[in-house]
């Protein structure tokens, strides 16, 4: 099974690409969705957050007992120690859930599984992907889309959010494939189709990986090794 790491900048169209891939029957492991699920009430990470921050964050819970995310964000803002504590709780839970969903896709015989991860490179998850894909667009278009999506943001606020992330050029440079999303939705659909044509694994290889798990494990280990010793070529779409 080919694991595809999908990333992009804020408001560049990553979620749209993810939805297009899902519409083609490709399983998507969405890191943002999982990050919300692992901190739902009574989940281990939820209980650990209450234990770590409940005593000094009185508004940590909403009336329905779910986490008050803005309050938690304010609690850790500017506090590196608190941020590290929160990350030590949530990151392992998210990674475990993502691994579980990826294994489910493999067991079901999927030829491709997409990891939709905004911080793919920052978190080092690209090391586990056979192909990494970045959805990008021009800075001016990214700013325009962000302000239209989040209408409460001033231009300065939107620019600050863009600057807070890894630059689009750095993501372009690190990705194996780059989808430039400066055109229409129809253009994007065409580019996604072209991407799948380029990366689609041979059917016989996918079948062998599914029927012979040691072969699949060997292919996975080879991917990990290749990520460390080879510089892969990029193709723009």
Automatic annotation (TrEMBL):
The keyword Disulfide bond does not apply. GO terms for biological process: coenzyme A biosynthetic process. Pfam families: CoaE. Keywords: ATP-binding, Nucleotide-binding. InterPro entries: Depp_CoAkinase (IPR001977), P-loop_NTPase (IPR027417). CDD domains: DPCK. GO terms for molecular function: ATP binding; dephospho-CoA kinase activity. The keyword Chloroplast does not apply. It comes from the Eukaryota. PANTHER family: BIFUNCTIONAL COENZYME A SYNTHASE-RELATED, DEPHOSPHO-COA KINASE-RELATED. This is Dephospho-CoA kinase. It comes from Protomyces lactucae-debilis. The lineage of its organism: Eukaryota, Fungi, Dikarya, Ascomycota, Taphrinomycotina.
